[in-house]
Design a protein that fits this description.
9 strands, Rossmann fold, alpha/beta, 4-stranded antiparallel β-sheet
């Protein structure tokens, strides 16, 4: 599902440097990435999603070579194939909870918003215990509730790949277990792949594999 070769990335005007010789995740795997802040974990997710582009190297996600797509193509590919749970949620304050969940269908012609999609959005909200807040502005939600809205949005399209950046970071222990169970169920139901960045080591036994980013890439990421 994910294959990265000879990748080199730098932020302009920054000392940060990420170099990865080889990074591979098989289809259907549930993989956790751990490591200290600043080691490049979030940058890795952004590169895979095509939010940013490398200076060199190749990034394959499924059949697509993401690094060879232009900005518009990467955006379309991300919306239609990847569910991304951002660390800072990336919710639109002026929209309701329901409209935030449905947002991928509002911004891509490749996705068709119909009644079945709306029903799935409501069902996801119910599973996340926020169905009573669908008409509420996200600006009036708690951090944990906002986190659950972001997860619903990421899961709505039944993506082949789910990228989660601290998806359970703002949740209490009971909700952490519940959210992780839902993420894993989405992966299994859709034969999808899950790549999750986490600092919560209690969750690691639930994953197929754990990658310590500092151990594998620490001499090349700063």
């Amino acid at each position: 599902m994910i294959n990265i070769q000879s990748l080199d990335f730098r932020y302009p005007g920054s000392d940060f440097h990420l170099s990865i010789n080889n990074f591979t995740i098989a289809a259907g795997e549930k993989v956790a990435v751990i490591g200290p802040s600043g080691s490049g974990k979030t940058t890795l997710l952004n590169l895979i999603a095509g939010i940013i582009a490398p200076r060199a190297g190749s990034i394959h996600v499924g059949e697509a070579q993401v690094d060879q797509l232009n900005d518009s193509q990467r955006r379309s590919f991300r919306i239609t194939n990847i569910g991304f749970v951002f660390q800072d949620f990336e919710l639109l304050e002026y929209l309701s909870v329901l409209d935030n969940i449905l947002h991928p269908y509002r911004i891509s012609k490749a996705l068709k918003l119909d009644q079945s999609v709306r029903q799935r959005a409501v069902q996801l909200a119910k599973q996340m215990s926020i169905s009573d807040k669908l008409k509420r502005s996200v600006g009036k939600l708690s951090q944990g509730e906002r986190q659950r809205v972001a997860i619903c949005r990421a899961m709505l399209t039944n993506p082949d790949l789910i990228l989660a950046d601290e998806a359970t970071g703002n949740l209490d222990p009971n909700n952490k277990a519940h959210i992780l169970e839902l993420l894993f169920k989405s992966v299994e139901d859709n034969q999808a792949t899950l790549l999750a960045v986490t600092h919560d080591h209690e969750l690691l036994p639930n994953f197929d594999r754990v990658i310590d980013f500092q151990t594998f890439y620490g001499d090349r990421a700063s």
